[in-house]
Amino acid sequence: MSRLTVDIWSDIACPWCYVGKRRFEAALARFPERGSVDVHWRSFELDTAAPRVLEPAVPYAERLARKYRRTLPEAEGMLRDMTQTAAAEGLELRFDRVRPGNTFDAHRLLHLAAAKGLGDALKERFLRAYMTEGEPIGDVTTLARLAQQVGLDASEVGEVLAGERYAADVRADEDAARALGIQGVPHFRIGARHGLSGAQHPDMLLRALTAAWVELPKSQASAPEASAAGATDAGAACGVTGCD
Q: Measured in whole angstroms, how far is the alpha carbon of residue 110 from the centre of its chain?
């Protein structure tokens, strides 16, 4: 039976990735062949040099303005726009609670969760914890607690966090993103030919799913994995220089 693969590069510390996840879910719910779609969450770190936990000594908008060389009103306006857009998707973004930090260990646990069939559940839990609840996503104790909440084994989670397991998998995802020219997230690779950047509207994502399904026998035979064919205009996204 044919299967359609969807690879989604995203980061936890990315409001548009949260919005993009909801929009993709909305598109997938309308896709008649959704039972034949395999979704893989791929790692992408927006700030590889971030400390494990960065306590918010200054308001989030001010920190954002400094980091991305924006004026404070520009940063505040950006946060308002993202908050309003997320609310329309049923999401609550609480930038007043966000506790920034390094997401590398979170991505390692996402690979563990994927191996256990819990990848989507942990992705959702991490996003809500960071973007809504104000959890420090770089803190290993917090990560262990959240991972256990979705059903991962405590001892295995502890083993992963104490060592380097899945580190190579995270770096492989990031290498693949660079090879494909991905500079912002979320980024969707639907099948072998369709690449969509940013938190695209569900209608756009549904069209890509439909087109990729129709092309599936041909794409499986040729497998042009790095092809840019079928790419669309970029939607709102976060990159290393900031969020749209």
A: 11
Interatomic CA distance for residues 183 and 197, integer angstroms: 9
Per-residue pLDDT tens over the stretch 176-186: 999 999 999 99
Burial 86-125 (b: 16+ CB within 10 A, else e): beebebebebeebbbbbbbbbbbbbbbbbeeebbbbbbeb
For residue range 146-156, list pLDDT tens digits in order: 999 999 999 99
pTM equals 0.89
Instruction: Report how far residue 158's alpha carbon sits from residue 175's, in angstroms, rounded to the nearest whole number.
Output: 26
Judging by DSSP bridges, how do beta strands 187-190 and 4-10 pair with one another? antiparallel
Nearest residue to 199 (alpha-carbon basis) of 149, 144, 236, 159:
236
Q: Beta-carbon neighbour count of residue 34 at 10 Å?
A: 14
46 close to 238: Cβ distance less than 8 angstroms? yes
Give me 28's structure tokens: 């997938």
CA–CA separation, 167 and 68 (whole Å): 28
